[in-house]
Amino acid sequence: MPRLLLVAATTGYQTRSFAGAAKRLGIDITLATDRCHILEDPWRDSAIPVRFEEPEMSAEAIIQASSDGATLDGIVAVADRPTLVAALAAQRLGIPFHPPDAVAACRDKHQSRKLFADAGLPVPENFRVDLGSDPHAAAARSSYPCVLKPLGLSASRGVIRADNAAEFAAAFERIRRILEQPEIRQFHEPWNEAIQVEQYVPGQEFALEGLMTRGHLQVLAIFDKPDPLEGPFFEETIYTTPSRAPHHAQNAIVAAAQRAVRALGLEHGPIHAEMRVNADGVYMLEVAARPIGGLCARALRFQSPGRERLTLEEIVILHAMGPHAIEKPPCELTLSPAASGVMMLPIPRAGVYESVSGIDEALRTNGVDDIVITAKIGQELVPLPEGASYLGFIFASGGDPALVENSLRTAHSRLRFNILASLEVLPL
Length: 428
What we know:
By secondary structure, the chain is of the alpha+beta class.
């Protein structure tokens, strides 16, 4: 039976989604996850223990496991940190994937800006500031308004707009505190040693989901982000597809994404790109060498000749397995005719999650397909820009994207979250 290597976090709903998709396709799966290498299979899943902060050593552990009999036919990485481990392992095993240098460039916003500029894409005025620098001196170098962002974090974590020097200094210190947290410092990643500063780019945001096959980009979907996202923070909430942008704007988005993936050197596997569009053109914000995160993939349903429905996870797996798949990877894919969308439920304030009410009422909202609350009772909630999670997801579908957007907003208004204030722990 063909075998897929899934490089992912030990726990997480996206990991489970891919494992379930592989099972439906009749493909065996080997996990490579961030776990203790000393304990003997603590999760009872026979996973290869890896450490994302040590990609070379982790890739070698995967190679060793493969030589011991766990033959691997394809590789998929979930989330940003696993991508470099997957790229190194794929390169050594001769399995098609994105090159390690390309994956590293995706993780570094400053390097990716350089590559985009070299490719002739519009790039905002930008510079990089070492984490130990004087924020007031850096503020004097910047034009305003500007945006400060960590080089390597995702999901808008630590991204802050500043309209003047005082706001710049405050934002810089806030981001520095985020990057100095033990959960981030433990990875010793070079892109967490500096802050990217770039001119604020006005315009509407979009996202593009695609597959790279031997250097060729196949566009799977373009998402609109209907919220304005003007700052001071940039919390993503609603994605809807198909896009309502004019055809010329969508063509420009696709063309810019094609130039961006070539500039980065991406080769084979899923990509998730984000961009802003205004009268000056398409500004690429980032391209990730992975599929869309969280449970957002549930907003996408595809059709192909001979198959009524395919999930994004199934498409990514079939693509990764190539000729080794039991089922031939589809070469023609179309989105299901209904419009669809997802709302990532924002954390309104810091505290401890206790409960949610109104779910039944929200589920009765016309067009709403499902509501998944991922927050756990007793979980400490941290909103953006410091936080890195959501309360959950709302999924909707309908006749057109505007109706889907309205369904998502209406359902959200019917949910009531009970968040308790955190108790401050005083030193003895």
